[in-house]
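Following up on my earlier thread - several people asked me to post the actual chain instead of describing it. Fair enough. Here it is, all 498 residues.
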Amino acid sequence: MEEICLVGGGATSVAFMMSLAESGISANSLNCPRIVLISGNSRPGPGFAFNTTCHFHKVNTPSSLMSVVPSHSDDFLVWLKRTRRKSDRAGQPQQFDTNYLPRSVYGQYLVERLSRAIDLLRNKGISVDIVRGAATDIRLREGRVELRSGERAWIRPRWLVYAPGHPALPNFPELEASRFFVGNPYAHEALPQLHSTDRVAVLGTGLTAVDVIMQLVGNGFSGRIDCYSRNALLPTVQSCVPQSEVIPEYLSYEHLLARRSRKGDLRVADLLKFLSLDLRAFPGNESELIRDLDPSVQHTKFLEALLDRARVGDLPLQALLQATRSYAHKIWHVLPHTERSQFLLQLQRMWDVWRYPIPCGTAETILKELRNGRLTINRLIGRRCVETGIVLEAPSGGTRYQLVIDGTGGHGGVSHTRDPFLRQALQLGLFQASAYGGLAVDIDTLKAKTGHPIITNTFLLGQISKGELFSTNALWFNRKCAQNVAYEIIKQSTLMAA
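Reply from S.P.:
Thanks for posting it. Predicted structure:
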């Protein structure tokens, strides 16, 4: 029997393994000192997000927030400096922005830190086995969960940690059969040879779509790129220089709780009101740009104005929203379910636009393409397959394309998942779908909500629980959750061993 089984091979999984390795865990504190890591990738560590080899794909989080080592918040920065020194000595200097570097660089960091965690655990007498292949089957037997990968032996863990990343179900299943459609934007081999006279459509205008644009432009494509989404909103821009700290007064968690205790349930309208009150301290903030320039129409002018502000660190709205990141998941859970649904319908896209901005360098490339007319942003109102391509409908009319790339990143719903493991777990009631995307999880313990009261040993980490936890796009938040789960497992295992 295995003590711990971890399903997943991305950044959150590495943070979990590092948390175990750095803790006081030992072979004596476990009934069976064995950990099994099941990874769908042949190279565990980078996961899907950081497994790219394209150096045009950049992280959109400052390097200072990207450590996966709980005891050293600057671990990634230290690793990065050491790696650059090695490259310099070898006569192969690495040229990139230290703050917003290529995702492939961070992927290498994750590979090395996972290897380090495994070595530390093995030095403590704990066996660590890696199964390179996706988890495919799960069952309930004699009150315990068992799982396996392919035709390998069944694994019967005392603790199951499920951290598979984003389920990323396709948004356009009706287009998948078309030879003109590329569903995986990171499958470079799926893209045909492009010419300057070609016209490419990208579905989506968010972070994944930006990746596609940067990849096409970086690889020398000089044809036309037309992006489509329901809202036609591009991401906003990270400040190019450090901004002054903004501390919310009205949108603080303490104020929201006090308001709730006085007047009852919070409403989305209350959050918008408090945001407006906090912004009064910053006259001329970005909300005036939204009033004067429609960001869903005047893309070039809006991006120009944002970049001007970003270069001098004048983005108080962005700073205010980012200041809520450490407690946004708590705000989410004091909203009634009806208000959460209202938020997702009316404000989710705008929230994502302002909370997940892109680096200045990336924004400058997007702006250049907008100015020269090689990039357009359009509102999508319809789509259909025809014999000679795919027709995308905008308010101005329809356009036929012979290459359409899905740049939406998929959606987080799991009810119609194609993953056999997840599908079986849902059918057995071992996992439950969340109304807000992903799987339902207890926000205090991070244990999976299940239809089997006796099953209390399954934890959910990372993107799969984003809908319930709301903040799991943030690496620092995933690291904190991984650390909490690791310590809880160690505590419980130690008690059982005693």
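The first strand starts at residue 4 and ends at 7. That should answer part of your original question.
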